[in-house]
Amino acid sequence: MEALIELVQFILQNLINALQRGSFYAVISIGYSMVYGVLMLFNFAHGDIFMVATYIGFGIATLFLALFSGFLPGPLIFLATIVITMFLASWIGVFVEVAGYRPLRSAPRASAAITGLMIGIIFETGILILLGAKRLSFPPLMESIAYNVGGVYFTNVKVMIIIISLLLMLALHTFIQKTKWGMAMRAMSYDFLAVPLMGVSINVIAPLTFAVGAGLAAVAGILYGQAYPILDPYMGVIIGWKAFVAAILGGRGSIKGAALAGYLIGFIEIFVATIFPSTLRDLIAYSIILLILTYRPRGFFGMEHSTKLRL
Q1: Of all helices (H) and strands (E), which one includes residue 127?
Q2: pLDDT single digits (tens) 10-24
Q3: At what angle are helices 156-178 and 2-39 packed, to 10 degrees?
Q4: Residue 13's CB: how many other CB atoms inside 10 A?
Q5: Whole-model pTM?
Q6: Contact present, 81 and 64 (Cβ < 8 Å)
Q7: Are strands 146-149 and 230-231 parallel, antiparallel or unpaired?
């Protein structure tokens, strides 16, 4: 009986840890999936947009704490940091689309992919020039309170990250299903060449898609800074590629699939790391994903010859 209780505690403890880690992959991967669903290209600069947004959130949070630490409660500073960072990051997404991808719409897809990689390198180099290579520590915006429920340990910050991520996905679902902008994005995902002939401007929907994806990445960046407070100019590379894998595993263009795959990758990484040496975590985790794609090459919700934005 005692062994069974310990097993349940082990599973629940790692389940909570996996939900937190998977939340980052899920939210970021949605940005990849949205852009592909609408424009049939992957924004390979998305991981570095996440990185830049995290640094922006760091700057805003540091400023607010210096100015209002004794006057405003932590949750209000946290909320203001999220809102302002989302706004600024959204404009970065618009800039990437207008300056980087719009001139290449008629170019081969390889050109757009290379452009995304180059934009990412520009962002990384820009951060190095402005702030140097020294790692920075994201300031805690909320007091961390630890709980022990039946031998399972978690904090209020960890629960907050999971809840906010789920609420973001619900808000995105509502936006795409219930608004005219969302309807236009779904229509564009069916045929981004024919739909503009019906009066839907791709020059409006494309930057909007990039803006929404960048805004989601900004929230993921701030939440990531609360969970893992070390900032690095190259932090977006590994996380971005893992989120890209989640977008592929979920099925290209499927928002629901990207979110599900993001959580699945988080689960696999956490549970593998608790059983095997941490040095083997990525090897085993992504070998499992490769095996899944071998038998399900179009991902969980991918369809043959389909590039539609689905929920």
Answers
A1: helix 109-131
A2: 888 889 999 999 999
A3: 40
A4: 16
A5: 0.90
A6: yes
A7: unpaired
Q: What is the dihedral of CA 262, 62, 87, 77, to 10 degrees?
A: 90
What was the pLDDT predicted at 306? Answer: 46
The one-letter amino acid at 151? G
Architecture per CATH, domain 2-138+145-309, reads as Orthogonal Bundle (1.10)
C-beta separation of 171 from 219 below 8 A = no
Cα dist from 244 to 35, 228, 240, whole Å: 12, 20, 6
Annotated domain spans of the chain: 2-138+145-309
User: To which residue do tokens 């779904």 refer?
Assistant: 186
Q: Are 38 and 205 in contact (CB under 8 A)?
A: yes
Alpha carbon distance 276, 128 (integer Å): 35
- Cα 219 to Cα 166: distance, rounded to the nearest angstrom: 12
Q: Which helix (H) or strand (E) holds 49?
A: helix 46-68
Q: Using an 8 Å Cβ cutoff, are 219 and 164 in contact? A: yes
Angle at 56 between CA 53 and CA 59, to 5 degrees: 155
Residues 171, 166: Cα–Cα separation, whole Å:
9
